[in-house]
Amino acid sequence: MHLRAEAIILSVRAHGEHGAIVRAFTEEHGVQPGYVRGGHGRTMRPVLQPANLVQGEWRSRTEEALAGLTVELLHSRAAMFSEALPAAAFQWATALSAFALPEALPYPRLYAALDGVLAAIEAAPAARGWAVAMVRYELLLLAELGFGLDLEHCAATGRNDDLAYVSPKSGIAVSRIGAEGYEARLLRLPRFLVEGGEAGWEDILDGFRLTGHFLERDLLIGKGAELLAARARLVDRLKRAVA
Q1: How far is CA 177 from the centre of its chain?
Q2: Cα gap 166→176, rounded to integer Å
Q3: Inter-residue contact 8 to 101 (CB < 8 Å)
């Protein structure tokens, strides 16, 4: 097997005294694991920072064997890790992707969306600029993995107007009329997920509550519970930033 492609570093795990096993996300070939010789050393550590963009080259004698991986840094986001909130956002987005995505299956829409989220975190002067993109990425990830929400019509009335809630059981939107008397049992549907555009903090936090419910129920099972703690820290930092 021989593969050469641009990739986003998702996770790095030390292996042996100096090596590292890296999972990197490519546009056409999905998540690709590889062993980087010296990857845990001082020279390579800044290169193999999650969220960095690299040119990767994977080589192995058989499809079953873990490929050897060499990388060339194309774009570093390592400097952003000195800031607590961007660092938490980078860590969450890459860790979620590393955990949830199966290996070697292409997800070009997710690749483009993740690249956009990471770029937004790096460029935005305020978190509100990228927090909307993060919620949308989580929603897209659920959809691409077969757990998409139906936000097109009301579960109770069938209509597609005035959608304001989502059923936590079915993942289908509910209108204000359809929700009457049951609002406390439903998740709020922020307008930006239906209409697009920018959003205020109340809607953004509602978006995180919405996607978080379905991520926890459908994807982050078992070891994913550790990821939920990382996500909770990110959301808590966002709340403190708002305050």
Answers
A1: 33
A2: 10
A3: no
pLDDT category of residue 125 using cuts at 50, 70 and 90? low
Q: And the tokens for 175?
A: 């209108």
Question: Residue range 217-237: average pLDDT?
Answer: 88
Structure tokens belonging to residue 238? 């966002």
CA atoms of 133 and 119, how far apart (whole Å)? 10
| 7's tokens | 């990739």
Residue 176 pLDDT > 80: yes
- Distance between CA 194 and CA 176 in Å, rounded? 14
Q: Which residue has the higher pLDDT, 225 or 85?
A: 85
What type of residue sits at position 16? G
135 phi, psi to nearest 5 deg? -60, -45
- DSSP secondary structure letters along 14-50: EETTTEEEEEEEETTTEEEEEEETTTTSTTTTTTT-T
- Tell me what pLDDT residue 108 has: 98
Q: Give this prediction's pTM.
A: 0.94
